[in-house]
Batch of 2 targets.
Target 1
Amino acid sequence: MPQTAADWLHEVLEHLEMAALAAAAEGLDSAPERSLWVTFMQRQALALACAARGLQDASEDPERLLVQLDAVDDLARLLRGAVPGRIGDVLSEGQLFLLLWLAVHVHARLLPVDHAKGLVQTCWKACTNAPDDGDAALRAVVTAEAEGDGADEDADQDEDEDDEPWPITVPSPREPSTWLGEITAAYARRGEAPSLPVCDGAAFVPDSGSLLEIATTLALANRGVCPPGEAVHELIDTIGAMEEDVRSQGPEWEAMQGIPALAFSMYYVWVHLAMGVADEDQAMLVMRECSSHLADFPESERQGSTRPQRRTRN
C-alpha cells in the first residue's frame, strides 16, 4: 500500500494510463462526461485495484460485480464532496480515476474514508491535467507534502484525533436482522430524538421536522459517538448531497419518501456508510431486510409523504 500522497498519486496515474489504453482499444472517447467511458473506467479501476491488492475479482459474477460497482460509484461521489464544487463535477480524467481508485480501497476496507478524503484534497488540483502532465502532478504533490512536514510535526499530538473523527464505542450490527431491530427501535424514537453531545461541550439538537437530522442523530448516538459539532453538520451535508444525487437519477427516491420508515432506514444506513463502518453490500442487505419487514415498524406514519427538510446553516 502507498505510504504518502505522492505514492498514491503515482499509483493512480500509473493505473490510469493502463485503463486509458484499454479504453482506447475499445474505441471509447476519453471524456469524463461520456457515460460509456465513465462506466468502463469504473470497471477498470475496480479490476486493476483488485489485481494490485490481491483482492477477489468479481468479474465472473455479474450480480456481485454490479453491487461492487454501485458501491464504488457511491463512495466516489462521497469522496467528491471533500473538495469544492458540485458533487457531479469532475474536471479531468485524472480526477475521476483518483476518486474511483480510492473508492475501491475504501470499499475493500483497506483505506479509512477520512484518509481517502484527505488524499483527494491533496491530489485533486494536481490531477487537473492528468494524465497529460503526470510528472508535473507528482511534483506538485511532493512539494505540498514537503511544505507540510513542519506543520505535521507540530500537530502530531492531534493527528490521531483528526484521522479518527468518529470514535465508535458501540460496534454496528453484523446481521441484517439485528440492523432491522436497531433501526425500528430508532424509528420509534423519532418523535423524541435526543440531543447529541459533541466534544466541544455543547450538543447537536436535530430539527424536529427533518427526518435526515433525526436519523443521523440517533445513528450516531447508537454508535456511542461524541464528535465535533462541525463534523455532525458536515456529515448531514454529505448525506444530503447523496440524497440529491439519488433523487436526480429517477423516481425511486421520491417513491421511497412516501414511506417514511424506508426513508429513515436509508438515512440511518447512509450515516454508517459515510463513517466507513458499513459497506455497500451490507447496506443493500439491510435495506432489503427493512423493506421486507415494514410491518415491524411502528404503525403511526409508516406510510404517507414526509419529505425531510435540511436546516440552512448560518
Note: The longest strand covers residues 196-197.
Target 2
Amino acid sequence: AQQLEAHRGAVVSNEVGLGIVPANELARTFRDTLGRVNTLFADCAERSVLMVAGRVVELSAP
C-alpha cells in the first residue's frame, strides 16, 4: 500500500445518510459509498465537524 504524505487542508462533503432510505439501488449505493468515504476522511483528520443550520457540531475523535 502506498503511504500518503500528511498535508493540511479542508475537505467539504455532503451528508446523505440522515434522511430516508433511497428508493432505487443506484441512490443507495451512492449514499453508502459517500458514507464510507466521509468516514475515511474523518478517521485521518485532526478535527471533524458537521455543519447543521449554520452551527458547528464537533464529531468525536477517531
Note: Helices lie at 25-44.
